Amino acid sequence: MANEDYLEAIYRIMEAQGSFDGVRSVDVAEQLDVSKASVNKAVSTLKEAGYVTQSHYGRVQLTDQGRAYAAHVWRCHRMLRSFLENDLGVDHETADVEACRMEHALSLETQSKWLAYLEGQGITVEG
After folding, report:
1. Reported pTM
2. Under CATH, which architecture does the 2-63 domain have?
């Protein structure tokens, strides 16, 4: 679950920067409100899993596999948040927190099916 948060944060930072050349660990720490040491530990785990690369204390970059997985997690988060806000009337902050919890609790297969269902209902993804 936490590793998905780190992947998603890396992806979101890169997307906001308009560049997928990598991010600084300190930017990830700030986005997630965690210590840089926590980011370094997570990056080590993500490197072992093949999701990111990093030269010695360099910028963290997503591998193709990491980028695809992070994009899916972020898409799922946005879709769930949109559903909670627009269809159920949940306030934005609560919807954002709960969408994060929901995305981690569901299998990739269930996420994909739910995303397809929501898209079929015309629920759009907002940033």
Report:
1. 0.85
2. Orthogonal Bundle (1.10)
